[in-house]
Amino acid sequence: MNKLNICIAGIGNVGSELIKSIEENKSYYEKKSSFQFNIIGISAKNKNKNRNVDIKKYRWFDDPIEMSKLNDCNVIVELIGQEKGISYDLIESALNNKKHVVTGNKALIANYGKELFKLAEKNSLALSFEAAVAGGIPIIKTIKNNINLNKISKISGILNGTTNYILSKMEEDNLSFDEVLEIAKEKGFTSDYESKLDIGGYDAAHKLTILSTLGFGSVLNFNNNFIDGISNIKIEDINFAKQLGYRIKLISETSIVNEKIFNFTSPKLIDYSNPLANVGDALNAINIETDHLDNLFLEGQGAGGKPTASSVLSDLYDISQNLTFDNLGFKVNDLKEFNKISSDNIVNRYYVRIMTEDKPGVLSSITNLFSDTGISVEKILQLPENVNLDKPIPIIITTHKIQKEILTNVINKLEKLKFVKEKITLLPIHDN
């Protein structure tokens, strides 16, 4: 039987689950692939760390670069996760030593992928990355191989499980952002370091960069993203959105507008009728708009050891069968450098929460300022929550479509008025 000799760098949750899966399902994988999945080397920061799998039977490498030079190694699996550093060096070394590579490193691909894909292409090697986006959802292969002749007009979705868990939990249990963030850490959904990337929107934006390249043939360029995180979302906004018929979700969206790239990640109010609004817990979901399929909706586990290991295994299977095709679905030299759309051209409906003194004339002052600036108001909710007149009350306004810059200028003027007591919350509303 043919052997696929695998070396694994990074034995965290995903790496441990991958080893465990190969050990427990060896005969099944052999029947499915006609290949023996054979782990011949492993590497990680700490050899003595307690893991849910026994690693003593495998050859250990303190230096993963040396592991990548093994003559009998066919595939390097990179699960270290650094944006560059040793992760980049390892992949570069593996490709130079004629090894296929499987990685889940979305930050590295989004920022430095172009040169690595060029190297893989030069050496006719796989640089596979199904695990980099949406965990166990087969989104990479779906776009690259299954709908490759469809014209994609837009890709949007929930690409970060941690933020989706936080926002879902806030709504379900009426808890504050800070309270749920601590619960998410306790459950292992995120860590102190990861949470900055998660709640800041950067993790989702890394994934969106990759999807944009797959969907539109754009050069991998993380700088093309507009990014806003969820740290300023308050339980009040969750509840007010509910009264208006919306949920708040961290939505990532990519499209080409007038030959310019539009990559946008932000918390948005999304109508209950939209399938994305009903994606709860730590799940991910992606909607692809195409000419032949209209809307293709995929939902599933977007994070965690088992779902991500499943995607790694899928890439390993493809390599064993020589089913890798083009790594990106495009030749690297055919990728197009789109200019980033100007923020002046971003038009949205918006939710605005203004905390004000409860006194006559406040509402009319606000609406007059909106009207004088040409901002069309869709709805107004004045919702005093308590009888204590010493506390500010919320005024909720939703707008018709308007350039964000125009609305921001009005917000800046409002925040200088004495009756406005807090920083104004501004969130886009997602159009179905």
Q: In words, what does this structure look like?
A:
There is one protein chain. The chain has 432 residues and is α/β, with parallel strands linked by helices. The chain folds into three domains: 102 residues, NAD(P)-binding Rossmann-like Domain (Rossmann fold, 3-Layer(aba) Sandwich), CATH 3.40.50.720; 168 residues, Dihydrodipicolinate Reductase, domain 2, CATH 3.30.360; 87 residues, ACT domain (Alpha-Beta Plaits), CATH 3.30.70.260. The protein is built from 14 helices and 17 strands. Strands 6, 7, 8, 9, 10, 11, 12, 13, 14, 15, 16 and 17 form a twelve-stranded mixed sheet that branches. A five-stranded parallel sheet has the order 2-1-3-4-5, with helices on both faces. It starts with a strand and ends with a strand.
